[in-house]
Write a structure and sequence with these properties.
This protein is an alpha+beta fold and 288 residues long. The chain contains nine helices and 13 strands. The chain folds into two domains: 130 residues, Gcn5-related N-acetyltransferase (GNAT) (Aminopeptidase); 143 residues, Gcn5-related N-acetyltransferase (GNAT) (Aminopeptidase), CATH 3.40.630. Strands 1, 2, 3, 4, 5, 6, 7, 8, 9, 10, 11, 12 and 13 form a 13-stranded mixed β-sheet that branches. Strand 10, helix 8 and strand 11 form a beta-alpha-beta unit.
């Protein structure tokens, strides 16, 4: 059977989310997580559907990709198909030819799991490796220490506080109340949580969103930020501990996160909250 490249449409997103949940396991290479689709959902279901690509054979999805910004395809592959030659060759053909409707012309990046055959084929095809990212993981089988500050789970009534902390944490953030509500209405958010940390004066100082993938599977932190006016007081560690505790409560086996290796402060923050640094990963890119 031929491998078919598909765009699921809004009504087909649930199948993509389900297979992404199924493919998560402890010890997996860093890969696209249902929480990545959940965070993208802030742009709405239609925009998320337009950014998702699937590769299927005989009705079974073998790979899922998310067009996460201009020229970036974040791709993951079923665990039993990551070294399959036919699939890898089809993926390379689809990402290399702009007419296939996956990546446009110009500089493009492909993120794929370490060890997947597509990485070898892209390298052989002349693609280069981009700047490194650092994955980190915290095992959740042991108790998580108390963060030591007030933590609140965000509901609709606190959405404006959550979005304000996000915008104060990331200079180019476009996270609005409307986008929080769109995200919260998405399928992956059904068991996700947004958390806020408060200081002694009642100021919201840090925020995080956590995304379980189901009981006994790794949960993702995406995103985590500390308000620019409250940095240097350990609130990054505080909100990260709160995130780990929330994922543990939701049944996750571990907490995972990935950050640019150049962001040494973020790497240090996660390590201070008990996360272990894993080997770096790199996208492959092709120049214009």
């Amino acid at each position: 059977m031929a491998i078919v490249l598909g765009k699921p449409g809004a009504d087909g997103l649930s199948e993509a989310v389900d297979v992404l949940r199924e493919w998560q396991y402890d010890g997996a290479p860093m890969q696209l997580h249902p929480g990545d689709l959940g965070w993208f959902w802030r742009f709405g279901a239609e925009a998320t559907a337009a950014a998702v690509r699937t590769w299927a054979r005989d009705g079974r999805i073998l790979a899922v990709g998310l067009l996460d910004g201009p020229g970036l395809l974040r791709l993951t592959i079923a665990p039993d198909a990551q070294r399959e030659e036919e699939l890898a060759q089809q993926l390379v053909a689809d990402v290399t030819d702009p007419e296939r409707g996956v990546l446009s012309e110009g500089k493009v990046n492909v993120e794929a799991p370490t060890g997947a055959l597509i990485q070898d084929l892209l390298f052989e095809d002349g693609w280069n490796t981009d700047d490194p990212w650092t994955p980190l993981r915290r095992d959740l089988t042991e108790p998580v220490e108390d963060p030591g500050v007030r933590i609140e789970v965000v509901g609709p009534e606190q959405a404006h506080v959550r979005t304000a902390v996000q915008r104060a944490s990331f200079e180019r953030s476009t996270f609005t109340d409307e986008r929080w509500h769109a995200m919260a209405a998405g399928l992956p958010y059904a068991d996700a949580r947004c958390l806020l940390a408060y200081d002694d004066q009642g100021n919201a100082v840090a925020a995080v969103t956590v995304w379980p993938a189901g009981p006994g599977k790794p949960g993702l932190l995406e995103p985590m930020g500390v308000h620019r006016d409250h940095r240097g007081h350990g609130y990054g560690k505080t909100i990260t501990l709160a995130a780990a505790a929330a994922l543990q409560e939701l049944g996750s086996s571990s907490a995972i996160v990935c950050t640019p290796s150049a962001n040494v402060g973020a790497v240090a923050t996660y390590k201070s909250a008990g996360f272990q640094q894993l080997p770096e990963v790199r996208d492959h890119y092709r120049d214009a």
